[in-house]
């Protein structure tokens, strides 16, 4: 745990001095090595020293590679999302302006919205400031918690961190580029490449450790700025929400949203995420992850941010502040759905206009039933002749079916998983044709429903495969629903 006071941080002059010294040290190292290699290549041919053509060529290439790698490049700025103005979002921009005034800083010239649980600041130039605010972040934080996060970001401006950041990033990028330049990229480097690369690897590791330590002190100082604005209790609650929900959103995005986007449909991301985090299994998993982070989280020497326990401990002695009764910060947006649509358009790109909206209660039929129909069409040999009652027999034949279908170079386990997936799709289709409703709420498996009766098609196949569900239990289930004769494929069994 850090014993530094929450408000303490290295002076701006001290941080700049350290960054300048480290940068100069790197360029001195690079120039000494490159000029030494070039001298080794050229001097023997200008003097009476022993000459070796291969040694000269190798030294010339390595020395030139270092010079090419360290040649300064301009940092390219890519807009991270759609830009918003006071005319677009007066309440959000008003909150940002209030926090800027409280911090004694100017309002960023550009504010961008993104699809992530995060907020960040940077500088495109010495006078051009940029702030990034994630729309999902607004879904999970109260307005006062958001103020704490924004105050934290203005703490980076006040501490000069955004002016120092590009300097460190550029040097770090140059070191990495030099190491790559001295490598063939296929792991088959010569001894000379390995030898010349070693000093840069050693220096790069030292540079990362020192600058990461500086960055962590900056985070402690920015946290203290946030606590002074909102109180310790509110800001700790915000830290816990962000740490607990960031990996949850990543999972939601990949498992729920991307499969829908892949079909060129546009779901309501924010509404789906609220449903996702509200499900019992996801809520328990998020809490377990957060508890583990609070108990076991440690900071690595190369981490730019301190661990969550260290951040909370560093502000332990600061005032708790008043209770937080502010509304959810998503209400700061004039039209949350429209803002989300702008971010999605930016992510999707030129094809965005062709993506049709789809509600989450339509995803079951519009996405998963259609996907199941495609699977049944592509793999009729898996489903034809199989009924719901004979599904256990088809599950038992999964290894044989997979061996028939897979190519010699295919992974056997992946092939069997594929056959199991097609069987699950077949169960889904059979029930859908029989009038069952197919639903796929975020955070839940795809299910088929008829009144109060629910069957999870893919889960049933995997339970049969894992022998967690017996053939007799399954047949009793489908007999009870009177669906045993329903065919999984197009061909009705004899």
Q: What's this model, at a glance?
A:
This protein is α/β, with parallel strands linked by helices and 494 residues long. The protein has a domain at 359-480. The protein contains 19 helices and 9 strands.
Structure description:
This protein is of the alpha/beta class. It has a domain at 359-480. Helices cover 62% and strands 6% of the residues. The chain is built from 19 helices and nine strands. It has helices at residues 12-46, 53-70, 90-103, 135-140, 143-158, 161-181, 191-230, 232-261, 269-278, 280-296, 308-314, 336-348, 360-378, 380-383, 391-396, 398-405, 412-433, 457-465, 471-480; strands at 83-84, 110-114, 119-123, 129-134, 265-266, 356-357, 437-439, 447-450, 453-455. The strands form three sheets. A four-stranded mixed β-sheet has the order 1-2-4-3. Strands 7-8-9 form a three-stranded antiparallel β-sheet. Strands 5-6 form a two-stranded parallel sheet. A hairpin with a 5-residue loop joins strand 3 (119-123) and strand 4. Helix 5 crosses helix 7, helix 6 (161-181) runs antiparallel to helix 7 (191-230) and helix 8 packs across helix 10 (280-296). The termini are far apart. 36% of the residues are buried. Mean pLDDT is 89; it is low at 1-9.
């Amino acid at each position: 745990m850090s014993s530094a006071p929450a408000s303490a941080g290295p002076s701006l002059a001290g941080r700049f001095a350290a960054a300048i010294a480290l940068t100069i040290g790197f360029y001195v190292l690079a120039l000494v090595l490159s000029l030494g290699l070039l001298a080794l290549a050229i001097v023997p041919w200008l003097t009476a020293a022993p000459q070796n053509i291969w040694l000269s060529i190798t030294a010339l290439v390595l020395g030139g590679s270092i010079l090419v790698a360290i040649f300064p490049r301009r940092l390219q700025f890519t807009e991270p999302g759609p830009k918003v103005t006071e005319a677009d979002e007066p309440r959000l921009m008003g909150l940002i302006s209030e926090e800027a005034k409280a911090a004694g800083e100017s309002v960023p010239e550009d504010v961008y919205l993104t699809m992530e649980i995060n907020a960040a600041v940077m500088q495109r130039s010495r006078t051009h400031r940029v702030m990034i605010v994630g729309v999902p972040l607004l879904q999970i934080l109260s307005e006062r918690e958001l103020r704490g996060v924004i105050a934290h970001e203005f703490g980076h401006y006040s501490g000069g961190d955004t002016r120092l950041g590009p300097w460190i990033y550029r040097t770090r990028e140059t070191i990495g580029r030099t190491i790559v330049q001295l490598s063939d990229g296929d792991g088959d480097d010569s001894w000379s490449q390995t030898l010349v690369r070693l000093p840069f690897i050693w220096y790069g590791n030292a540079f990362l450790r020192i600058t990461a330590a500086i960055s962590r002190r900056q985070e402690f100082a920015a946290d203290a700025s946030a606590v002074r604005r909102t109180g310790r209790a509110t800001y700790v609650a915000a830290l816990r929400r962000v740490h607990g929900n960031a990996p949850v959103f990543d999972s939601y995005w990949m498992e729920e949203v991307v499969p829908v986007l892949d079909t060129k449909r546009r779901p309501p991301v924010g509404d789906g995420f609220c449903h996702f985090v509200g499900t019992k299994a996801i809520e328990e998993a998020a809490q377990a992850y957060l508890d583990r982070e609070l108990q076991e989280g440690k900071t690595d020497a190369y981490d730019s941010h301190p661990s969550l326990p260290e951040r909370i401990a560093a502000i332990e002695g600061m005032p708790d502040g008043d209770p937080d009764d502010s509304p959810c910060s998503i209400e700061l947006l004039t039209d949350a759905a429209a803002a989300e649509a702008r971010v999605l358009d930016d992510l999707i790109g030129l094809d965005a206009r062709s993506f049709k909206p789809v509600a989450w209660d339509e995803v079951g039929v519009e996405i998963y039933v259609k996907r199941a129909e495609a699977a049944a069409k592509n793999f009729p040999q898996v489903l034809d002749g199989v009924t719901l009652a004979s599904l256990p027999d088809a599950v038992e034949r999964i290894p044989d079916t997979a061996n028939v279908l897979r190519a010699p170079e295919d992974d056997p386990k992946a092939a069997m998983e594929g056959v199991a997936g097609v069987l699950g799709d077949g169960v889904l289709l059979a029930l859908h044709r029989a009038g069952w409703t197919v639903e796929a709420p975020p955070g839940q498996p795809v299910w088929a429903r008829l009144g109060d009766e629910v069957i999870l098609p893919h889960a049933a196949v995997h339970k049969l495969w894992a022998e967690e569900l017996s053939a007799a239990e399954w047949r009793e289930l489908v007999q009870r629903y009177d669906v045993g004769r329903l065919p999984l494929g197009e061909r009705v069994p004899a």
